[in-house]
């Protein structure tokens, strides 16, 4: 890669440094013109030698609550964010850029995945699913939708099982495949809390959360799940580790049982694959919605069997931050949004006397 490309990567990195960084990020950014030849040489030599330097494979783990209002005494509420050295991020950005180009140029991108892709986001995922459902409802059909995600998805990735689809499905071979093997092997990490550091441990499974390559590698790892969904003829859309399965059916006693059975068969096969690949379904977050037109009587679906557990239909469920209700009216989402807005506006009103007009206008944004 050229010095100009590496300079672009340096510019995107924040000034906040990792605890194990030998050079603070702020100094590196200020002195980038002098350091660019060295950085460019390091970045280019790593893939060429099919080796990720051992010194940059260490991570400082800082546990972070998934949501601010969660119980800090429950360890499952924390996300293990990997803080990496600046040079690690630059190397990963360079490799990620070339890997993304390879996937895109060879038409290997997943059509129904809306994350880690150019011009895709949570909005595109939600719009696609909502549009599909509303079209089916307009065609006098109902839709059974299953929302689920993985538990500790990034932490259970088996490195050998990951490299197999990378080679066979995505055409990552030769020195590039060797580089990824080197990237995954011999990684070390420690936990740091309030300046206290734990013992350093080897990371034998998983990909680092907070890394540039981690999310992309996770998509590669879970690619067989999408094959199963297609084989069973279900509609799906994915956003990172959130999976939206949905299937339209005519609201009559003849078709409804077969549609439910089709979803159950698909989920059962996915669950078997997940067990083999050391992935785990987060059953607590699994939701079932039976979607239909408001003016039609809802179909009577008692439950869907998900890996031996009966999931009963819910009147509404949060899907990638948006509340879906059984009629896709978004009434509950609008009510929830207005409630949150009024809560924050009331809090702002309590400190309004201490703020200037300019500062007050900035707060809602």
From TrEMBL:
<dbReference type="InterPro" id="IPR043502">
    <property type="entry name" value="DNA/RNA_pol_sf"/>
</dbReference>
<keyword id="KW-0808">Transferase</keyword>
<dbReference type="GO" id="GO:0003964">
    <property type="term" value="F:RNA-directed DNA polymerase activity"/>
</dbReference>
<dbReference type="InterPro" id="IPR000477">
    <property type="entry name" value="RT_dom"/>
</dbReference>
<protein>
    <submittedName>
        <fullName>Putative RNA-directed DNA polymerase from transposon BS</fullName>
    </submittedName>
</protein>
<keyword id="KW-0548">Nucleotidyltransferase</keyword>
<keyword id="KW-0695">RNA-directed DNA polymerase</keyword>
<feature type="domain" description="Reverse transcriptase">
    <location>
        <begin position="45"/>
        <end position="324"/>
    </location>
</feature>
<dbReference type="Pfam" id="PF00078">
    <property type="entry name" value="RVT_1"/>
</dbReference>
């Amino acid at each position: 890669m050229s010095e100009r490309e590496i300079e672009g990567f340096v510019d995107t990195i924040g000034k906040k440094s990792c605890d194990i960084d030998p050079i603070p990020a702020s100094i590196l950014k200020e002195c980038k013109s002098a350091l660019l030849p060295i950085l460019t040489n390091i970045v280019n030599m790593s893939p060429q030698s099919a080796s990720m330097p051992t010194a940059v494979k260490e991570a400082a783990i800082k546990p972070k609550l998934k949501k601010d209002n969660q119980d800090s005494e429950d360890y499952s509420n924390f996300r293990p964010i990997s803080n990496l050295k600046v040079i690690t991020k630059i190397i990963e950005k360079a490799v990620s850029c070339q890997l993304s180009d390879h996937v895109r140029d060879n038409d290997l991108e997943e059509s129904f995945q809306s994350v880690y892709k150019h011009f895709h986001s949570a909005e595109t995922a939600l719009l696609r699913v909502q549009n599909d459902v509303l079209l089916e409802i307009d065609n006098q059909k109902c839709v059974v939708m299953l929302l689920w995600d993985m538990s500790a998805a990034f932490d259970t990735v088996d490195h050998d099982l990951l490299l197999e689809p990378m080679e066979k499905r995505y055409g990552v071979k030769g020195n590039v495949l060797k580089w990824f093997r080197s990237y995954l092997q011999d990684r070390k990490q420690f936990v740091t809390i309030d300046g206290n550091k734990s013992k350093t441990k080897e990371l034998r499974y998983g990909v680092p959360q907070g890394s540039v390559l981690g999310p992309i590698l996770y998509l590669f790892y879970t690619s067989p799940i999408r094959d199963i969904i297609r084989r069973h003829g279900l509609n799906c859309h994915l956003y990172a580790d959130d999976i939206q399965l949905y299937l339209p059916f005519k609201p009559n006693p003849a078709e409804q049982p077969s549609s439910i059975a089709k979803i159950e068969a698909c989920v059962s096969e996915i669950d078997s694959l997940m067990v083999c690949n050391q992935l785990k379904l987060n059953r607590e977050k699994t939701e079932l919605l039976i979607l239909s037109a408001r003016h039609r009587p809802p179909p009577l679906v008692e439950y869907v069997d998900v890996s031996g557990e009966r999931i009963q239909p819910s009147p509404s469920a949060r899907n990638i931050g948006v509340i879906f209700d059984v009629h896709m009216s978004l009434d509950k989402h609008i009510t929830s949004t207005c409630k949150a807005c009024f809560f924050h506006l009331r809090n702002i009103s309590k400190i309004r006397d201490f703020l200037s007009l300019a500062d007050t206008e900035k707060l809602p944004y």
